[in-house]
Amino acid sequence: MRIISAQEVAAATPYPALIDALSAAFAEPGAVEAPPRAHHAMAVTGRAERTLLLMPAWDRDGLTVVKLVTVAPDNGERGLPAVQGAVLVGDAETGAWRLALDGGELTARRTAAASALAARWLAREDASRLFMVGTGRLSTALIEAHAAALPLSEVRVWGRRPEAVSRVVEWARARGFDAAPAALEAGAGWADVISCATLSQAPLIEGAWLRPGAHLDLVGAFRPTMRETDGAAVARASVFVDTMAGARGEAGDLLQAAAEGAFDYADVRADLAALCSGGHGGRASADEITLFKSVGASLEDFAAARLAAMRLAATRLAE
């Protein structure tokens, strides 16, 4: 089995190609079998509760991809990413495991690419201001991915740790963005796109702060007990999701808003499959507030791993 490093994964999945690969995968429902992920809470003595995720997918040719992930919320205290994982790619002919891709890098990139794919349909075409809420591994991935889909030029960053905010701001400046720290209310009211990638258990973004035409990208709350917005934000927005199954089972922002009476799942406008296949046109007006809630799907891992495997194979042939 060939071990593929994070650097190799990044090189094999440039965002424009990755966004297109996800779009093609979502546009052809049924071409890939992607069962709902197995989701296990892990009690660890003396440490924060962890999450174990098992995500399989396969296509009609027999190509098989399985992702194994642990989410350790207290890893930030150790200077490590919360998400740790590996992605195994099985040979289409024999089923033998051929590649082991760095799961943290692949997860970050496919997650960010899914948000950028949604932004193609849901953000204003002239969206140039991004407010990044959260400073973990996904923060820089989300900035870079959105910049591949939108004409971003300005970035504002919020996080709980000032040193982490400074790190993300400096990273963005080094890549040509006008970047600075921002408070939550100020950043939310300023932004064309608000991207949230945290493990918050309480609302961070309030609906009253959203400007007309804003696009809200919610990535972090992947368990029913988590949320990054209040019910008013969900109520004000046209809601879109990555998959309906995931949104009904794990999307804390939507589940809690529904429990409060601020949202009904019948009001979800579309999922990524409908957007990418032409079943829904996305944003309807310049002033519409849109919301995209993702919890992740093994289809995304499959599309990203397949792209990486193809490009790695092509590179080896060229050597």
TrEMBL record:
One of its GO terms (biological process) is carboxylic acid metabolic process. One of its GO terms (cellular component) is cytoplasm. InterPro entries: NAD(P)-bd_dom_sf, ODC_Mu_crystall, ODC_N. SUPFAM superfamilies: NAD(P)-binding Rossmann-fold domains. GO terms for molecular function: oxidoreductase activity. Belongs to the ornithine cyclodeaminase/mu-crystallin family. This is Ornithine cyclodeaminase. It comes from Rubrimonas cliftonensis. The lineage of its organism: Bacteria, Pseudomonadati, Pseudomonadota, Alphaproteobacteria, Rhodobacterales.
